[in-house]
């Protein structure tokens, strides 16, 4: 219902809700089955639904369109209040995960490290981690601000601390339960971001009293962008150069207190400032930190992989475990990257839902008559224009393709980290080699998937905003803040370009080993890097396999075409490299390798899941057929998008693109279009997760949108619309 | 100098200023000549510099980094104060343009329509229009908010009103001089944007008393997005359906008073609300309007092309001049489109300057040793990585290519509109046919250039922000608000997709006439549509001309390749259309046609200007050579970007892309890279126009940036950094 009763509401020109409802009645898709597919398993699906219900029904955590009008200070304060609320949910979630509500003091007992309770495990956080991941979709700055503490600070300690240090900081001091201390992650500096190895902050060992002195030696060494530093952190993990007797051992990690945990006063020697306004996520209190002779005890160096021993006679020994020392330094970032692939799925789902509903409900231009004039017929729904389908449907398909790979990556991450933890505790060196190799693969694929999907979703938000015309530019329809909050994902926790290059260089190295030395471990690499199997490379070389997607029933051909592209691209790079030996000159192609690898992985993982009913939970044939069309569309859309590369490397002939690829693309889009409302409904995002009235479920676009605008901008009842600063205007207009 | 003295500033790790200064001493480019080229002529260049000086030195108009911290209410009030200030500059500018400072009452005399002064001419506004255009680059919401009144409201009256109406509203009532009344432009409605013909607001003629009654018949007919409506407009031009005796004559324009010009109270029957928060440009008070039986006199219908006469005996006659009636309806938007191409140049210049300086000053990663490790050498400047050159240099080239076409389009616009005005006054029907054709061409090219360049510059801002890493995400470095303010240009005053389709369809029609009927008017179309010359089309058909850019000295070949692509694309579209007769199915290709047409025009206009020393003002050979390299690079960059299309249409062979195009691309980038600081200096944008410390002229990136952050976020001197809401945090951390 509109708030404005002065107009006749009985006979509106448009009835978008009617169109949207009609699509729901005509679609035969089994939405529940699809939702289970997208949420990975029935158990995880149920948990997702339960948590979304709790998040959207909690009066502290809920977010509505008034959110888009908050200024920076308001955002920060509200975010802090929400964090305090989340701390309570966390206790609840740990109890639920342990199925232990009888011990009313469970959290206190854990913190006291009471022997009656087993130590905190990662399984204790399964529910809360998911809660945080879902919150990222409605209030990203909130989940980041918590994530800095739990994810970055916490994981840095878990990845680099000894068991004792982990227990002390996370459990006894309470950090893991958001009690006692609140942490931040002081890695980047004003002058150094991606190049962690060259950070300039120093940690000088004082032999005489077993302490470290932390210093910021120059302006560019100022810790910069540190989330939580400006207002909320009591402690920080600081990346600093370990210097002992003048020798530089490289960058290590140290826990440094920043503020008194009771009064929040800064510790002496610590200088902190506010980074201020950002493009998005202003609810996070990013700050800068300078250290002036800050002294910390020796125990505050995280020393799982490096130990400093001081016998007191000027004899200081340093022991480093080189295999893991370097990787572990970055492992805190790994969790973020893995989470960002999941975020890509959820952010994509949100904006795809909004734009699809708007495209179905919005009408524009009557059909043209033969002489090119507009007829008097009813205006056409946007979604019925092929160009509009081209702008919407492939983005919807993209979101579908991200989900399986996001869940798989998350599972692999937890499994590998657990393995690493156990192997490094057991000090089993053979096992260590294997887990290092697995960790390396995880680095490659998470980097490639993070970079590719955060870029794809940035484009998705931008493109879909434009499909909503002017209404997409209103803050109340979520795109503006959504985009601003999103795009930092392309930069932080590994700049996308740097990550793409790193992962592509590793793939190139693997390719060299496989093609030249026949080295390929199918147990280790068979799954993610199947295209590097030497026998497949040989088949590509000898044209025994060729790109061919004519046969729709040959589903694997839609993956294979990317495998061939990858091999041919790698061969091409190898050839050029032989000539000029300058890897930098090839970096534009390397970024593409990372992208193609991600596309390949996404297709492969989706295919694996959907072809197995036990994994896909999709038993309905019609639904399955549509899901396969989405799979095909994704492949075909990107073939067309990268047709330059496909043609350059001669996977296709010039005419194939317009005769085969593009007709298939438009045919698939038209097929999927008939179910597009059902496919976006299948994300099962309630209105208060979307927080965009033009995308609300009931499809009553204009009333919903109008009402939210009026709610947030109430008309002045007295004064009849006189603006507060009208004197500036009247004196201008009446000036002599 | 940094504000933080606790750190040793004497020996910083990095010295970005040194690098940037060094490039200035080594470059041999004649920056002044380039600046004259970019600013069109020496006279225009001098005016630009003078106006920029005035804008940046006026304490009311100046904008610094504190701008990025303003909330919506502050932005709106400050913008209103700036408008009042601009009104004074406008008087000054009119006097300057008339070279008449003796008549102290010039503005009052003009308003009184005093016969001693000639009527206001468009030449009176040359200086002020330029002032506004330059303001758009530092404070876009200010220029838009003024532009709504002068550009949209004013141009609508100029385009649709009779001479008497123009004189009355713009001169006697004072609108043209920002006195007496302030206008807004009520075209779009909640339910209709691009489809102007279907707007729903009604204007019903009352025969008995010669008035119109304006009504909003339903919610979707609510005027929506109306800039200036929420707070500042006293009057509006309203697009409404003219209804006489129940007959609908389509959408016409009416001047409707909204507020009392003294008290600013709303007129009776007018309901106005605030649209609220937007993705960007919150300084503009966009509003919505509903009309409830608002009565206006007959004279308030703008009637240059439509007249309603009422003899009082129930005999009402309507006379329409069909040739111009429709075009004129949109002509108010034309000025905006033309201005947006100029904005593309200036916005592009701003962000290219910031990113280029940062890329030269910022260092990242030491060179790698042979075994792939980082060496101990100094870290490499970002700009020296080929991939970084690929991200920066083509964007710089893009800006260079926009400038000549932007100035030419602006000149054509003024010339054509003047012609239209004179011809329609003289009622010369033959001349009217010619000017209509010219106007149509102006519609095609302005649509194609507006859509293409606003899209390109949106990508430019996004891509260049990413090249600045995290620092690009700080609001204080201009990219965030810059992007948010910019992207609405892709939607308003003609949605880019709709404009691309419209212009491409017109090109396709011209192509049909040329190819099938040999119809081609070289006087009219020879310049902008040279590729449609039937003899050229025949040469492409018979392969007498082929794409070939091997010879760098054959400058025209870099344009011709796009001419061939256009013809081949049009032939392809024609073929498909013959088969399926469904233009909608080809819309993806049509968008490309519009884009290719814009690229062709940009190359052609740049070439025309640079090859003629009298027009280019570039006499230095070395400078000219670099300018030609920029021209080549632009062509080659987009060939590579659209290699899919070039290969599909067989302009090149698959190997040409990697053997010819890409090596040429990287070679050109490396050449231009050596002068990249000079080329960005040549935009001559002072620091307070850039308003982004990482891009300031002196190149002292880190100090400048640090100081602006601290200035806007002063550290609390007492309380030692305790956040205002710390109780929420301490009570969470100490909870039981």
Automatic annotation (TrEMBL), chains A, B:
The name this protein goes by in its record: Acyl-coenzyme A oxidase
UniProt pathway: Lipid metabolism; peroxisomal fatty acid beta-oxidation
Cell compartment(s), UniProt: Peroxisome
Cofactor(s) listed: FAD
Annotated ranges, domain Acyl-CoA oxidase/dehydrogenase middle: 184-294
Taxonomic lineage of the native organism: Eukaryota, Fungi, Dikarya, Ascomycota, Saccharomycotina
Keywords: FAD, Fatty acid metabolism, Flavoprotein, Lipid metabolism, Oxidoreductase, Peroxisome
UniProt similarity note: Belongs to the acyl-CoA oxidase family.
One CC-aspect GO term: peroxisome
MF (Gene Ontology): acyl-CoA oxidase activity; FAD binding; fatty acid binding
